Amino acid sequence: ALALIAPDNHKTHITKAANWLISCQNADGGWGETCRSYHDPSLKGIGTSTPSQTAWALIGLLAAGEATGTFPWDTLEWGINYLLSSQLPNGQWEEAEFTGTGFPCHFYIKYHFYAQYFPLIALSRYRALRAGNGQG
Fold it and tell me: Do 83 and 54 meet the contact criterion of CB atoms below 8 Å apart?
């Protein structure tokens, strides 16, 4: 949101957020966070990679790059490769984890289409950016 509203006024915050996302990237190139992080704050940014959470991280990094003019290309490509390699032959992604919060510490929600449309958004924004049309 800061990248869209007033990027010049918030570059420090945007850069700090992007650096945190980069620090949370998993060894497989994706991102994930367990819902247990609501109970245990030490688990923030830690969890099995999921297509939706990887897409959210990529969308955030792309927005941060547009705001600051600095793109972490290696990190982005690693995340994109996670999405492409985890895509099923039918074009979908499978996501067993619950990634939605119903009411923190009480119940969590599995939005079945999160694993489908957020990766498509991330991939399309990445492709647009790489194609040079500036729409990242």
Answer: yes
Please name the residues in contact with 92: beta carbons below 8 A apart, sequence gap of 6 or more: 115, 116
Q: Is 10 exposed, middle or buried (0-12, 13-18, 19+ CB in 10 A)?
A: middle
- Integer Cα distance of 13 and 3 in angstroms: 10
d(CA 25, CA 41): 17
Q: Is a pLDDT exceeding 70 seen at residue 81?
A: yes
Q: Residue 122 — left, alpha, or beta (φ > 0 → left; ψ -120 to 50 → alpha)?
A: alpha
Q: State the amino acid at position 42 in one-letter form.
A: S
Say how far apart CA 76 and CA 40 lie, in whole Å. 28
Please name each of the domains of the chain with its CATH number: 2-130 (1.50.10.20)
The per-residue pLDDT for range 86-134, each reduced to its tens digit, is 999 999 999 999 888 777 778 788 888 999 999 999 999 999 999 985 5
Output the CA torsion 105→79→131→64 (10° steps). 50
Q: Which two tokens stand for residue 64?
A: 């941060």
Query: Considering the entire predicted model, what is its pTM?
Result: 0.91
